[in-house]
Specification:
- The protein contains 14 helices and 16 strands.
- By secondary structure, the chain is an alpha/beta fold.
- Strands 1, 2, 3, 4, 5 and 16 form a six-stranded mixed sheet that branches. The chain has a five-stranded parallel sheet with strand order 6-15-7-8-11, with helices on one face.
- α1 packs parallel to α4.
- The longest helix is centred in the first third of the chain and has 15 residues.
- It binds flavin-adenine dinucleotide.
- The site of flavin-adenine dinucleotide has 32 residues, from α1 and α2.
Length: about 400
Amino acid sequence: MSDAVEVAIVGAGPYGLSLGAHLRKAGVSVRQFGLPMQLWRAFMPEGMFLKSQGFASNLSDPDGTHTLEAFCQATGRPYASYGLPVPLDTFVAYGQWFRAELVPDIEEVLVTDVARRDGGFELSLANSEQVRARKVVVAIGVEHFAYVPGPLSALPDTVCTHASAHTDLSVFRDRDVVVVGAGQSALESAALLHENGAKVTLVARKDKIRWNGVPLNPERPPLQRLREPESGLGSGWATWFYSNHPDWFRHLPRSTRVYRARTALGPAGASWLRTRVEGQFPTLTGLSVTSAKADGDGVRLGLAGSDGSTRELAADHVIAGTGYRTDLARLSFLGTQVRSGLKTVAGTGSSVVGRDYQTSIPGLYVIGPAVAPTMGPVMRFVFGSEHAATTVARQLAGSAVSRSPAAVTAGR
Ligand SMILES: Cc1cc2nc3c(=O)[nH]c(=O)nc-3n(C[C@H](O)[C@H](O)[C@H](O)COP(=O)(O)OP(=O)(O)OC[C@H]3O[C@@H](n4cnc5c(N)ncnc54)[C@H](O)[C@@H]3O)c2cc1C
């Protein structure tokens, strides 16, 4: 593979951008493909705020100079490490600034196929180009894995959509909209719909909507900090463990990892969202959607309670705020030969990876939400990009054959 690039990165979200910054600094020859910050630009509603705190919303760069705080300072935007929700448009602009400063040569094209070739890989791009690479890192986030539960999945998208289908919720003004779900995305979509003039009803399976507490004061007395440490994903010792030790998490028994990766830290709404939901519109809890059918221009849902009660609900539209479920078997751009060689964590569609994020196919790495059942819930958050990017960069820079003179001189 004499004409091969050392590393191809597939993806340009927080994980891909972070890894790109580290590898370039280390002098590794890289080509990177994807649409920068696409999930955040095209699959989230205008007016949204991040749930993660400011300090936990940094992309990772080798010098630690390109933090969200540095960006906000440079552009005159308000910023606080704790307690000031980060607006979506600020985070998108931050990602674009990070890209322009540290990874300007990303190629804004999608990968349509990845195949094993001559001990490495051959990637096909949507512009018909073929690229050879010795190693491939897949950092494709969640956009391919929107999950719509059983009865809703059979409805046409004229009456039922996943929350990721909407950036402008004002199109639902004056319409009856049911939002299904109890996590941050469902709760915030419902609040934004209501504030944009829609007639909203929230339906949740849980008996009670859970809300996160307000962030703890970082200056609180040492004993309190010891009792309940604050970390990237929130407060408490379990959360501290998930936030800071993906490398320990991977040694837990498989069933524990799978369960924790899915259930830790959710579903719950951010503390600042609570007053925008409670008392603002009807919230029906303890009810599952058991049937759904299109009815004229609208939709009719059958709901069942855990006590055996049933009821019907009619609306113009249903929005499924029901999250994402990784299933690498659905990634058609990973050719059949690659998909069939990928070992997955039993009970999930997520790839098994080693401590260096390498999959069962030598030279193929996966980082981000797709490896949460191995590395833990931190992979579902921007905060996990630090561990993933630094670990993979160390591994790949060490084995890189074509390294820049600057990197070699610097002893990297
Ligand atoms: C509504 C919502 C709110 C969220 N809020 C927060 C929050 O407040 N804080 C937090 O930490 N996390 C939040 N998350 C989680 C968030 O998804 C992850 O933290 C983060 O986006 C993961 O980054 P990533 O780089 O893995 O993937 P993504 O950001 O999803 O980026 C994926 C990249 O892959 C590229 N790609 C996909 N397919 C291809 C292909 N075939 N070829 C080339 N490129 C491809 C895309 O173009 C994109 O560049 C939220 C998620 C959602 C859905």
